[in-house]
Amino acid sequence: MSHSAHAALSAYTTPIIRAIKTIIRSHVIVSINPVPDVPGGLDAGLHLAAGPYVEVKTDRSRGHLWIGCRQSVQVIPGNHAGDPVAVSISSVTYQLLAGDGRTRFDEIVAYHWTPNDPTAKRSWPHLHIGSAFIDPAARREPLALHKAHFLTGPASAAGFVRMVIEEFGVQPVVADWQERLVEGGISS
Length: 188
Fold this sequence. Notes:
globular; alpha+beta; 8-stranded antiparallel beta sheet
């Protein structure tokens, strides 16, 4: 693995990990594999160590809330010494869910972006309004909102974390959470 590819990957993932770790105590893992036929290239995946979802603390009586976070990127070094290293996003997923964590998870919102996934239905950044918003008393799905893809700009980890803190009452687990979100590109 080239030093510049490793440095570029670290520069990309560090603010994401720091933002996510403002609301969780478990580890965030970055797995790295070489890109076949690309000298010095890296395929990297970022995910939560505890599993697909991690419970977050909330200051409101909303029941149990969980987050999910996954990213896949490819790091490709330049062809010549001094050429920039390119970090290309393959997929991004940020999710907020409700549920008991054992038998049920109901998605509240999910941000997806799959710009380099040819199998994805939508390659542009979008939001899903989850099934948690469907009124079970109505016994119908109004306009199947949970299946719609609402166009957004790219969602950052810092933006997602700020949203779950401010809109859903998720409690930060570190004192410097605002500074971490500013590092991740979100103004205070």
